[in-house]
Design a protein that fits this description.
globular, alpha+beta, 32% helix
């Protein structure tokens, strides 16, 4: 995955590395250097994207710095007035500091100075925040949690660095003695459990304190930020790089927190590189930080991150964290495909790296970014399962996300072997993400809602098997973290992509195994998703397989009994208490079809093989939700009672078009008319008929299968040759 750029430029960087010791440096000396400032000042006077960005930022700043400086006594939780004001303040200080360096207009430096002095007067008077959460994260003083305090320091220490040379010795002493050093000590020695933690909270804390060490000539702080408070290496920034990312750059908590943690990782790494190039931070673990930037891009569809675990679904590749990440990656690699992402982000950061991006865009050096089908190994050594991304551009652009990945720490959900599906720019088979209104104080102070635990994290909120209405690992995070699934195999080729995963520890005495494939039907210029979920146990259980979809139910090929006058919750706990039972049916043996229409104007049909003993339960989120915290989304659950062994087989098929503006509808009915499943040794064979064409999909699940190895097999008196894991064969034309 873009390793050719990473590896080649790592070599160049290594050659350029010179051994140096941490020493007092001139200012600025963090992300923006003196050399950057010279280039930025020149570019700001010339036509182009960079000068346009400077002009826009300057106009905004000139209006903002005319307002009175407000540094309120902390009072509110996330999203409240004081919280948002302090957040606004650190962003203003940073932006004004940058503008001072570009324009050398002392008004910007004076604004930052005066705000820092106001904070230096306030901070010594503060106790811990009044809205702190009891028995939760460590509290801040300016903010309800120390995470936000660390974010404040990451931005503020850069602002201070940027105006340092404009300050008097008296102001320097006041600001450092009464504000910056106390904040750094509070976040480090004052909160060792967070500072030493291998977690995104620890990343922000070590980044802030480490950069403060560079600016205020405290080399011991830098060492502690890198290696833990006792410098043992058991915690600290380098340990976080070692543990939180897999060798491929996948972040353990998932794309949403990958994005969030990326800014302190990239920012502090830039500061380390500029102050101590001998540490070769961007070469650490074979360039894992560069790989992490690419991974963040790959873990998105149509500009939005895949919303696994605790994720706000509106976050995407245009977030400021990834804007900085892409700028840094381009500066280090000169990979012109990154300019495609930068163009889509449509934001130029006012740094030396941002200047390089702007100049390259102006020079029209952009080449298309090629998204890939890839399995991102999970865990520090890449062996704790994987997060699999399958992509296809047959007909429309599709993506299938398969999750035989690890728990993801406290932000993880109990959703082993779940999947999501995207097509034509939209989410089709969906994940709820997080139950949270970020920074909306009226909704639980902007924090995670109680329903995040009672519904969003629970297994039934996802698209994977639930046994006996109990969530995976019985909802225990520690057990989930200790028991990742196994990725049995992943393969991708011109015929499509396929992956298989399994887990035997989600429930006692139950083995879950799932194989999913995004299959190209080249002759029809379309792809379908094949899903095979096998459950085996020594004792009988109730097995539920939910599918949550985005859109309006259009039709079923079986009679559906709707609950039209009285609704009741589907269950009493583990997320079931939040699902209204809207209707039910037990289809006859054969093909059971459910069709819905998405807002993208396409129809989607899930065709399932049934034996006449599966009940289909149609649900809507919203039961037992007195504060209306949950979105009222739809789904259906395939339920089998009293089974010790069962195989769920289905195919998801996009089809047709609905255009209400031009008043036409095309192919609203499923084009898949036959579906059969069989097994030949290690070969799984799926026969399906679509638009009169008989297709045979062959999947080799043996341990010995290789991409370039072929085998011959016979099906219905016809011989076929399968190369690799996945084969798609046209059998006949009716």
């Amino acid at each position: 995955m873009h390793l050719r750029f990473i590896k080649s430029h790592l070599i160049v960087l290594m050659v350029a590395v010179v051994l140096s010791a941490c020493a007092q440096a001139s200012h600025p000396n963090l992300v923006i250097t003196e050399q950057d400032v010279v280039a930025m000042r020149t570019a700001a006077k010339q036509p182009g994207r960079f000068s346009t960005a400077v002009t826009a930022r300057q106009a905004q700043l000139d209006e903002q710095i005319q307002q009175p400086i407000v540094v309120p006594v902390p009072r509110d939780g996330g999203g409240g007035y004081t919280h948002e004001q302090h957040k606004k303040n650190y962003q203003l200080m940073y932006n004004a500091g940058v503008m001072y360096q570009i324009t050398h207009n002392k008004d910007y430096a004076d604004f930052v100075r005066d705000m820092l002095l106001a904070y230096a007067k306030l901070y010594p008077t503060l106790d811990v925040h009044p809205q702190r959460k009891v028995n939760a994260q460590n509290p801040g003083k300016l903010f309800w949690q120390s995470l936000n305090e660390a974010m404040w320091l990451v931005y503020t220490i850069q602002a201070y660095d940027l105006i340092y040379d404009a300050l008097s010795s008296e102001h320097i002493a006041t600001i450092e003695t009464n504000l910056l050093k106390p904040v750094a000590l509070f976040l480090s020695e004052g909160q060792p459990s967070t500072f030493n933690k291998v977690h995104n909270h620890g990343t922000w804390a070590t980044a802030g304190v480490g950069m403060a060490g560079y600016v205020m000539d405290e080399p011991e702080w830098v060492e502690k930020a890198l290696y833990d408070l006792d410098k043992s290496g058991e915690g600290g920034f380098l340990k976080q790089l070692d543990i939180l990312f897999s060798p491929q750059g996948y972040y353990n908590e998932g794309p949403y927190y990958h994005r969030f943690a990326l800014l302190p990782f990239v920012t502090f790494a830039r500061a380390i590189e500029n102050n101590e190039p001998g540490r070769a931070i961007f070469q650490h673990r074979d360039g894992v930080l560069l790989k992490a930037i690419y991974a963040a891009i790959e873990l998105s569809y149509n500009g939005l991150f895949f919303p696994i675990n605790d994720a706000i679904k509106s976050k995407g590749t245009d977030t400021i964290e990834l804007v900085h990440g892409v700028a840094a990656a381009y500066s280090l690699t000169s990979d012109t495909s990154l300019l495609d992402i930068a163009h889509q982000q449509d934001q130029i950061v006012l740094t030396g790296d941002g200047l390089k991006v702007a100049q390259a865009l102006d020079a029209e050096l952009t080449t298309p970014y090629q998204y890939q089908s890839v399995a991102f190994g999970d865990g520090s050594d890449g062996t704790e399962g994987a997060l699999v991304v399958m992509r296809s551009n047959i007909g429309t652009e599709q993506a299938l996300l398969f999750k035989p990945a690890s728990q993801g720490l406290g932000h993880g959900h109990f959703d082993k072997l779940t999947w999501q599906y995207y097509d034509h720019g939209s989410e089709i088979v969906s994940d709820y993400g997080a139950a949270r209104f970020l920074n909306v104080e009226a909704k639980y102070g902007g924090r995670y809602l109680p329903e995040n635990t009672t519904y969003a994290k629970q297994t039934v909120a996802h698209n994977t098997v639930v046994v006996d209405e109990t969530s995976h690992f019985n909802g225990k995070v520690t057990k989930g973290n200790a028991n990742p699934p196994d990725l049995n195999f992943f393969a991708t080729s011109g015929t499509g992509s396929v992956a298989s995963g399994e887990i035997a520890t989600a429930y006692p005495d139950v083995m879950l195994e799932r194989t999913v494939a995004l299959v190209n039907l080249t002759e029809l210029n379309r792809s379908v998703a094949v899903d095979i979920f096998s459950v085996t146990s020594d004792s009988p259980h109730q097995l539920d397989l939910p599918l949550h979809y985005q859109g309006q139910l259009i039709d079923t090929n079986f009679e559906l009994k709707g609950n039209t006058s009285n609704l009741s919750a589907l269950g009493t706990k583990n997320g079931y208490q939040h699902l209204w039972l809207k209707g039910s049916s037990t289809p006859k043996a054969g093909l059971a079809k459910v069709t819905w229409l998405n807002d993208n104007g396409r129809f989607y049909t899930q065709t399932s093989l049934t034996q006449g003993n599966e009940e289909f339960l149609f649900t809507q989120i919203g039961a037992n939700d007195p504060n209306f915290n949950l979105r009222n989304e739809h789904g259906f659950i395939r339920r089998i009672e009293n089974a010790s062994e069962h195989r769920f087989v289905s195919v998801l098929e996009p089809h047709g078009e609905y255009n209400p503006s031009k008043e036409y509808t095309l192919n609203a009915v499923s084009q898949l008319t036959a579906l059969q499943y069989s097994q030949q040794g290690s070969l799984t064979l799926i026969e399906l008929t679509v638009e009169g064409l008989d297709y045979l999909v062959a999947i080799d699940s043996s341990n010995q299968a290789a991409d370039d190895e072929s085998q011959t097999f016979s099906y219905l008196n016809t011989s076929y040759t399968l190369t690799g894991r996945l084969g798609v064969f046209v059998r006949s034309n009716h």
